Each structure stands twice: as C-alpha cells, then as structure tokens.
Amino acid sequence: QGKKIRVYADETRPLLQGARLTAWELQQSGIEVTVICDNMAAFLMAQERIDYIIVGADRIARNGDVANKIGTYNLAVLAEKHHIPFWVAAPLSTFDFNIDSGTQIPIEERSPDEIIHGFGRQTCPPGVKVYNPAFDVTPHQLISAIITEEKVLLPPLDKNITLLKKNLDLNLKTY
Questions:
Q1: Minimal CA–CA distance to 153: which of 106, 92, 108?
Q2: Whole domain around residue 40: which residue ranges?
Q3: Does residue 175 belong to any structural domain of this protein?
Q4: Spatial separation of the C-alpha atoms in residues 150 and 153, rounded to whole Å
Q5: Residues marked as catalytic
C-alpha cells in the first residue's frame, strides 16, 4: 500500500529479545526500526510519537487475558493512559481454551543470573536478591484487538474467543 512503517522496538530485558531478535526480523523485512530501552516507552507516548502498539503473545486465555514477555502489561497500562490502541498479534496455536483467565497461567521464574550477570559482566552488588519472572499477564480489558492469521478479534474478547473456538471446532469436524 506504500505506507511508511517505522517501529520502536523495546529492548526486552533481561535477555534483550527485542534488541536482538525483533529488530533483526524487522530489518530483514525492510521495516525501519529503532531500539529503545524498556523504560522509554511512556516518554515516546507522551510525545505522541506512537500511533499504536503491537505485541506478541505466548499464551491467550479464554477470556482474552494475554501472557507475554515481562513488561507487556506495563505497555498496555501506558497505552490506555495515552489512548493508544494496544493490539496483540498471535497465531491460533497461542490460544489455550482450557483456561478461563490469565490467573491460571503459570509464570516461569528465570535464573537470577540473567540479571546479576547481564551484558557479560556483574551488574548487581554481590548477595542482592533478584526476582526475575519471564512473563506477565495483560488483562483483556486493556487489549484493543487480537490479530490472528484467521481474523481480528475485537472486544468483548471472551465472547469472540468463544465464537472463534466454535468455528475452529466446526472446521476440524469437516476434515
């Protein structure tokens, strides 16, 4: 369509998936990307430099709650504050129709070493305690849409996810 797309990619600490993977994938697709530190998103939103936010998902509950890399929930809260649409892009395989809400999604806690020895050197004082959850859960109320390879789901997400499941069940029966 000839639209110029520019992306700000959060670095995604502590393993820097945004800086290492997301930025690389966007470059490979010919999309202009600027990596920012995770704490910088609100600054850009306040300057009205963000039109919408798109994140991925590791797991989506039946009510539309989304588990994704730590910091996703922060972005959703900031997006709501600044009236910026918050979209989740995820394949259908990400939906877990067996869980009602994000409260049922177990959150993996990662090794403290990812933070204590970040960037290949000691970054914290010896003996400091570290809490390092890999994921957080974004409540469905903060999500503007879930984009899948089949369709875009809009609120009310719980009802539309139920309809999606029914359609998937019907399609499976036809094969």
A1: 92
A2: 6-168
A3: no
A4: 10
A5: 58
Number of domains in the chain: 1
pLDDT digits (tens, 9 = 90+) for 97-113: 999 999 999 999 999 99
Q: Which CATH number fits the domain that encloses residue 24?
A: 3.40.50.10470
DSSP 8-class letter at 83:
T
User: Is the separation of the CB atoms in 41 and 78 below 8 Å?
Assistant: yes
DSSP state of 108: P
Average pLDDT over the chain reads 95
Q: Is residue 103 part of a domain?
A: yes
As a whole number of angstroms, the distance between CA 131 and CA 112 comes to: 7
CB 110 within 8 A of CB 80: no
Residue 138 neighbours by CB distance under 10 Å: 26
Peptide bond into 156 cis (omega under 30): yes
